Amino acid sequence: QVHMVESGGGLVQAGGSLRLSCAASGRTASIGWFRQAPGKEREFVAAIVSSADNTYYADSVKGRFTISRDNAKNTVALQMNSLKPEDTAVYYCAASTYSRGTEYSGNYHYWGQGTQVTVSS
Asked: How far apart are CA 37 and CA 3, in angstroms?
């Protein structure tokens, strides 16, 4: 089975940076990051496909966030720069056996427990 464990969340001021990490056991085709704020639906953030190292980003984070993967260690990082208060949410990493459709949460079978990111004004 694939197990996902997120870490690196915390409290940061607007304009600051955080680096989230996801430790994944087992092989995965794609790793995605999603976030969910109170009262909001789960939102796609970024994804990476291991076979081609393709990366995908939501428009809201493009240019600010960077996703990377260490295939040997089965770890994925999400570097978040220029954080905004609207980035505040619980962030989840997830694993998919698909290399396409990475922006859809329904394509992911394995999810981590989530890590809280809070950005103050």
From this structure: 23
